[in-house]
Design brief:
Number of helices: 9
Helix content: 40-55%
CATH topology of the largest domain: Trna Endonuclease, Chain: A, domain 1
InterPro entries: NOV_C (IPR024975)
Radius of gyration: 25 Å
Protein name: Protein NO VEIN C-terminal domain-containing protein
Shape: elongated
Order of helices and strands: HHHHHHEEEEHEEHEEH
Number of strands: 8
Organism: Frondihabitans cladoniiphilus
């Protein structure tokens, strides 16, 4: 990284191969390192730096973003502090001159950035998939109100002249984890709107609906939500991990508008 910007790829390759101080790695290892720098878009094919990296923390960030080790997707659960760091990232941090506390802080920062974007993509796909399924399954008007504004406190409305249901949609691609994030506005909407219902939909890795669809118990949400303890502070978002007994198959609130040909994912006939 030090030689590439000024020397370019051919001269740097010759330098690393010809000087004994660089013989701790083989030419093949140096070539793999160059390939990694190019795949991470830190350097282009000509050896020109395309992303400014000024310290070891940024280099570790690039490593996590490009290589995404198997444990990274669940880092929020698996790694609660620096004592729980996996061996591979400990070794990477040590090689970069980072202590364990700094290595842990980098993981949390990068995971938060990736998780936010991934949740947005999964959430959008979940809403679209449920919209399509509802329009095939219910005899009612189905509107994607979240496409107009996020101020409603729910994503989809299902209405007839004498019926309405307001669905807040949460989506996941993890079959073994029922976790969702709820904003304060969504929570306050739930408390004042008797027609509000939170549903959790499951998508595959291609963000296609595979089921199941489950409604989440409102009393459980209200009972487990954070509590403001002072007028000086107020929670704005919370993460919920839902036990299986608080998940209700299908969307039973829609039973009066469900037709005979409705998807069993909506009716809850399969779990």
């Amino acid at each position: 990284m030090a030689h590439l910007p000024s020397a370019g790829v051919p001269r740097t390759r010759a330098l690393l191969a010809g000087l004994s101080q660089y013989s701790d790695l083989t030419p093949t290892q140096y070539e793999e390192s160059l390939s990694w720098l190019q795949r991470s878009q830190l350097f282009d094919l000509g050896g020109r730096q395309t992303r400014l990296v000024t310290n070891s923390e940024q280099l570790l960030e690039a490593t996590l973003l490009l290589d995404s080790p198997a444990w990274f997707a669940d880092a929020d659960v698996l790694i609660q502090d620096e004592t729980e760091l996996p061996e591979d990232v400990l070794a990477a941090g040590k090689a970069l001159g980072l202590d364990e506390v700094t290595t842990y802080s980098v993981i949390r920062r990068v995971w938060g950035k990736v998780d936010t974007e991934l949740r947005r993509q999964i959430g959008d796909a979940g809403e679209e998939a449920l919209l399509e399924l509802l329009r095939q399954s219910v005899s009612a008007r189905v509107d994607h109100v979240a496409a107009e504004s996020d101020g409603y406190g729910y994503d989809i409305s299902v209405t007839t002249d004498d019926f309405q249901c307001h669905l807040e949609v949460k989506a996941t691609t993890r079959l073994n984890r029922s976790t969702f994030h709820l904003s304060r506005n969504e929570f306050e909407t739930m408390k004042r709107d008797a027609d509000w219902c939170l549903v959790l939909v499951t998508l595959d890795r291609d963000l296609k609906l595979i089921g199941p669809i489950r409604a989440i118990s409102r009393p459980w949400i209200q009972r487990t939500a954070p509590t403001d303890t002072s007028w000086e502070s107020k929670w704005e978002a919370a993460r919920f991990n839902v036990p299986s007994e608080e998940q209700i198959p299908g969307i039973q609130q829609l039973r009066v508008v469900i037709g005979d040909a409705s998807s069993p994912l909506i009716t809850g006939r399969i779990v």
